[in-house]
Amino acid sequence: MTTELLMVAAEMATVLQNEAIDAETAEALSTGYGAAAAAIAVGLAALGAGYAERGIGAAAVGAIAEDRDMFVPGIVLTVLPETLVIFAIVVIFLVT
Fold this sequence. Notes:
The protein is mainly alpha-helical.
């Protein structure tokens, strides 16, 4: 898989180095790069949200085990980082 990605990157580099790029090719490349950037942005946002939820979820379960009244605040605080991914997806739809 890594060699395939490197081959695609090398092919894109040769296309970009060629001075005679028509408008259709330039548009296709910009669309592809935009989609790749959007995928990376949402992926990193999801990774950050998952990392945050790991610690918050563990603390929330511990708090709920000690006091049942902490259930609702624990759920709210556990779900809160997931809004980061939702906002990232909304921004992608607004930009593209």
